[in-house]
Amino acid sequence: MQQTQTITRVEPRTRNWLPVINALYYVLLAAALVGFGYYLYSNLSLITLYLPFLLQGAGVTVGISVVSMVLAVIFGLIGALARLSRFAPIRAIAIVYVEVVRGTPILVQLLLWYFGIG
Amino acid sequence: MSLIQQVLPFFLIGARNTLIYCFVSFPLALLLGLLLAVMRSSRIAWFSSPAKIFIEVIRGTPIIAQIFLIYYGVGAVLAIYNLSTFDNSWTAGIAVLALNYAAYEAEVFRAGFLSVEHGQTEAALSLGMTSGQNFFRIVLPQAIPLMIPPFVNDFIYMLKDSAVLSVIAATELTTVLQFFVFRNSSNTLPLYALAIVLYLLMALPISYVARWYERRLRAAL
Prior knowledge:
With 118 residues, chain A is mostly helical. Chain A has helices spanning 17-42, 44-83, 88-103, 106-117. In chain A, helix 2 (44-83) packs antiparallel against helix 3.
C-alpha cells in the first residue's frame, strides 16, 4: 500500500542578508580607520613634534607600573600573611590597613603621601 | 578641633556632591551597560562591533584621560556651536562616570547572561516563548541575583573614582580637600584624616552590605 505522506520541513529562518550588511560594515570600518590614519597624517608635524615626549611618558608609565606591581606583590604577600597571623594585633593592623586603603580613593592617598606626609 | 569644626560643613557638602555624582551616574551606567551588552551579543556587526570597540577603548584608557577628553575636547566642540553652557563639571563628570562604568557594567551583564545555562533558553524557546519573553522571564530573573555583587562592587569603585573628577573642579570631596589643603598648608593632616573618614563612611557600609548579600547568595546556591 502506498501512502502519500506530506512532509513539512521546518526551514531555519534564512538570514542571507546578514553576511552582506556585515561585510558592508567592515568595509566602512576599514574606510573609517583609513580616514583616521589620514587625520593623523594631516597633523604629521604636530605628531612628530610631540610624539617623543608622549613616548617618554609612556615609558615612565610602564616603568612605574612594573616597579609598583613588583612591590605590590611583595607587600601583598606580607599583608596576606599578617591577616592570617596568630597574633590578634598584627591581624587587626592588616585588616585596618586593607579596609582603609581599599575604601579611599587612590587620588586622596596620593595627595596624602605627596603633600601631607612629604 | 576648631579646624575640623571650621571645614566640616564644606567637607560634608563635598561628600554629598560625591554621592550625587555616583547616584546619578550609576543608573545611567547600568542602562547604557545593558544596551551595550545586548548590542555586543548581536550577530549584526553594525551593533556588535561598535559596542566591542567602545568597551575596549573605555576599559583600556585611564578615566582621567577620558575626563580631559570629555571636559576640554567635547567642550571645545560644543563651544563652536555656542553650546558651552552644557559643558560644566556636573554634566562632564556625570557623563564620564556613566560612560566609563557603562563599559564595565556591560561586561558584568554579559557574564551574568552567560552564567544562565543555555539549556534554559532552549527549554523556553521549545515551549514557544519568543526570544524577548525568554530574555525577560527566564534569563534576566536568574541572572540578576548573580549580577548584584559585582554591581555593588563597581558602585564602590565609582565612589572612589569620582575623586578623579577633582581635576575639573567638580566640587566633590577631593576638590574640597584640595582647596583647604592649599589654603591651610601649615596643618594639613587633619584635613586628610577627615576626608579619609568621610570616604570610609560612604564606602564601608555599602561594602559590608555587599559582603553580607554575597554570603547569603553563596549559601542559597
